[in-house]
C-alpha cells in the first residue's frame, strides 16, 4: 500500500490510541488529516503538523474533506461508554457505515484499517462487543473493491490510558481487584505496539482483507495470579488478590446504569460491561504476523516499568 504521497486520514484522533498514532505517523513522515469535533481542543495535534478537519462521522461533507487526497484511512473513532445498545451503535456502527459509504462513493482507492476490539469475538457479551462486531460486518460482508483490514486489540494500556492504568495503580499499591474468577485469563497490549502494527499494515503492499487480533504475544495471556505476581516483581511489593463480591458488583453496575439513564450520562460500568470483564480472553498474533512485518516488542513487565504511576 506504500504510496509516494503518504497521506493518511485518522478518525478518533483525539482519543488514547488516536493521539499516539498521529504522533508516530508524523514522526515517520506521513501527512496526517484528522477528523475532530472541536479543533480548539485538538491544538496538540495541530502543533505537530496534523491537518484538522472539523466535523464528525455524521457529517458527509467533513468526511469527503477528510478523505480527499488520501491513500489510507485509520478508523479509530469509537464509543466505549453507554446506557443502551443505541448509545454504542451511533458511533461504532452508524458512524462506520457513514464513513464507508463516503469512502466507496468518493474515494474508492483509499484503503481502510478499522480499529475494532478483542470484544468483537464474543458479540453476545455486551452492547459494546455487539457494536464492534457489527461494524466489522460492514466490511467483511460487503467490502466492494476496498482494500481493508480489521485490527482487534486486546486490553490496551500505556501513557494516557484511562481504563487499564487505574488498575495498575492499585496493583502498585498492593491490591489487584478481580471482578470475576482469578483463574480467568486476559490478554493485553501496549499502545505503542498497536501503533506499530498499524504502521506496518500501512506499509504493506496490500491489506489482507480480514480481522486480526493483536496482543503482547505472551502465550495464553495472563490470569490474575500471574498479573499480581508480575506487578509485585515490578514494584517490589506483595500484591494481594482482592476478589470483588459478585452480588455487590452486580448491584453497583445495575445502580450505575439506572442512574445513568435517569441523569443522562454515559456509564462505563454496567451489567454488560461486567460480563466482558468476567470473560476468559485468550488471543494470539498469528494472522497479523503473517499479514505484515510486525512483531510485538513490549512485554507487560517492560510496559509496567515504563508507566509513570
| Helix/strand order | EHEHEHEHEHEEHEEEHEEHEHHHH
Provide the low-confidence segments as ranges: none
Radius of gyration: 19 Å
* Class by SSE composition: alpha/beta
Mass-distribution shape? globular
Measured by DSSP, the beta-strand proportion falls in 15-25%
For the biggest sheet, the summary is:
7 strands, parallel
Q: Overall pLDDT, averaged? A: 95
Number of helices: 12
How do the strands line up in the largest sheet?
Answer: 3-2-1-4-5-6-11
Residues in helix, % = 40-55%
Distance N to C terminus? 39 Å
User: How many strands?
Assistant: 13
Q: What is the structure about, briefly put?
A:
By secondary structure, this protein is α/β, with parallel strands linked by helices. The chain has helices at 16-27, 43-47, 60-67, 85-106, 127-140, 164-172, 191-203, 224-235, 246-263, 271-277, 286-291, 300-306, and strands spanning 7-11, 31-36, 51-54, 72-75, 111-115, 148-153, 155-157, 175-178, 185-186, 188-190, 211-214, 222-223, 240-243. Helix 4 packs parallel to helix 5 and helix 8 crosses helix 12 (300-306).
Amino acid at each position: 500500500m506504500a504510496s509516494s504521497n503518504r497521506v493518511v486520514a485518522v478518525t478518533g484522533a483525539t482519543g488514547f490510541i488516536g493521539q499516539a498514532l498521529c504522533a508516530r505517523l508524523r514522526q515517520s513522515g506521513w501527512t496526517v488529516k484528522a477528523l475532530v469535533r472541536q479543533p480548539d481542543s485538538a491544538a496538540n495535534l495541530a502543533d505537530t503538523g496534523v491537518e484538522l478537519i472539523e466535523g464528525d462521522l455524521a457529517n458527509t461533507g467533513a468526511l469527503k474533506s477528510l478523505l480527499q487526497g488520501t491513500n489510507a484511512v485509520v478508523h479509530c473513532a469509537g464509543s466505549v461508554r453507554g446506557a443502551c445498545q443505541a448509545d454504542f451503535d451511533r458511533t461504532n456502527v452508524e458512524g462506520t457505515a457513514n464513513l464507508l459509504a463516503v469512502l466507496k462513493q468518493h474515494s474508492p482507492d483509499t484503503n481502510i484499517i478499522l480499529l475494532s476490539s478483542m470484544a468483537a469475538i464474543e458479540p453476545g457479551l455486551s452492547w459494546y462487543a455487539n457494536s464492534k462486531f457489527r461494524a466489522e460486518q460492514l466490511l467483511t460482508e460487503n467490502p466492494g473493491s476496498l482494500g481493508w483490514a480489521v485490527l482487534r486489540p486486546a486490553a490496551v494500556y500505556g501513557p494516557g490510558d484511562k481504563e487499564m492504568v487505574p488498575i495498575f495503580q492499585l496493583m502498585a499499591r498492593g491490591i489487584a481487584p478481580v471482578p470475576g474468577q482469578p483463574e480467568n485469563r486476559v490478554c493485553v497490549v501496549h499502545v505503542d505496539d498497536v501503533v506499530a502494527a498499524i504502521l506496518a499494515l500501512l506499509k504493506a503492499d496490500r491489506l489482507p482483507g480480514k480481522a486480526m487480533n493483536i496482543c503482547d504475544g505472551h502465550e495464553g495471556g495472563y490470569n490474575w495470579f500471574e498479573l499480581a505476581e508480575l506487578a509485585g516483581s515490578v514494584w517490589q511489593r506483595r500484591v494481594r488478590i482482592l476478589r470483588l463480591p459478585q452480588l455487590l458488583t452486580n448491584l453497583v453496575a445495575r445502580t450505575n446504569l439506572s442512574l445513568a439513564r435517569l441523569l443522562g450520562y454515559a456509564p462505563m460500568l454496567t451489567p454488560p460491561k461486567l460480563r466482558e470483564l468476567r470473560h476468559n480472553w485468550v488471543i494470539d498474533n498469528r494472522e497479523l504476523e503473517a499479514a505484515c512485518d510486525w512483531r510485538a516488542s513490549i512485554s507487560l513487565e517492560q510496559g509496567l516499568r515504563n508507566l509513570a504511576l
